[in-house]
């Protein structure tokens, strides 16, 4: 039975940043990490972006393991959390005890009721390596889902010369985020890049095995592919927290110090439900910036620092030659005011609710996330006409 001053369940970006935060505050405390991953922490976004364009290598996405007194238990799954005994039991039969615990358990990909292991549910380094090997040898791919993962993987494969079909039940790419005119633009843009964009369609079956696969849709379309990727969202991994009696509501509920309903247990990253002060609402966010900033803050708090987590994270994507950064709440159901320098090339989109800016999309506009964050935090009422030029850009 190993004892750690600080035990982390999860081995992703949140865990890596938590270790940085811990070491800023406590240089010597023992740290243990239990993770189902077989790799030490790495940056996740390049898996669907920079690794495909050659801007990053596998070595470059691995998080530096420079801190001492850190023990990784790779390929392990925490199965039971005993808060009274301050113990974690994992699937290899080992038990680990702790003084402070961080739940950085992330999420599990939603799965289709068919296809089993023939579908790549793209999330981990192993998923990237599997798809990359397939792409070296084969030409035809189908991507299910038009959100973040689906849009990025489809673009990555197409940029590598592959024939790609993207299937989404919605009216287009990133339909939940972008206003209708931007969705229509992206649908056409992807088609110009050689991607078959199939909207308003649901996949209902997968036939075949290996690299000879056929997707069947609800409207009787059949799509042949050598590989199938699904990006249909994740479900937060709250099972340990629920069984242990921690407060859970769309994630593990934390306070401003990132402490759960148990004083010696903290949570961070994709699994944490926290209060975003700028938006005045609780949120659970599944993006890199939140994982890094919240992880570091959680580590500091675990080690005794006074933490008041107030950060409103940004997120970003790269889709062929178009990139964007976004802050706050992007929801296509909100009122969207566009300030274009060149339509669908360079501009800023403001998302309003009751004349208050809730989110900002920076379309091929860079280094303006702090200004967007500050605008959202003011909570001032604004007229749509007053937003043109509010965030200046070239």
Which descriptors would you attach to this protein?
5-stranded parallel beta sheet, Enolase-like, domain 1, FAD/NAD(P)-binding domain, alpha/beta, globular, 25 strands, 394 residues
Describe the model.
α1 (13-25) packs parallel to α8 (288-302). It is built from 9 helices and 25 strands. The protein has helices at residues 13-25, 50-53, 58-61, 125-137, 148-159, 180-192, 239-244, 288-302, 369-378; strands at residues 2-9, 31-35, 70-74, 78-82, 87-90, 95-103, 107-109, 119-121, 140-144, 163-167, 195-198, 203-209, 212-217, 222-225, 227-230, 234-236, 252-253, 265-267, 272-276, 281-283, 314-319, 322-328, 335-342, 346-353, 356-363. The chain is 23% helix and 33% strand. It is globular, with a radius of gyration of 22 Å. The strands form 6 sheets. Strands 1, 2, 3, 4, 5, 6 and 18 form a 7-stranded mixed β-sheet that branches. By secondary structure, it is an alpha/beta fold. 44% of the residues are buried. The protein folds into 3 domains: 2-108 and 234-302, 3-Layer(bba) Sandwich (FAD/NAD(P)-binding domain); 111-230, FAD/NAD(P)-binding domain; 321-387, Enolase-like, domain 1. The model has no long low-confidence stretch (mean pLDDT 96).
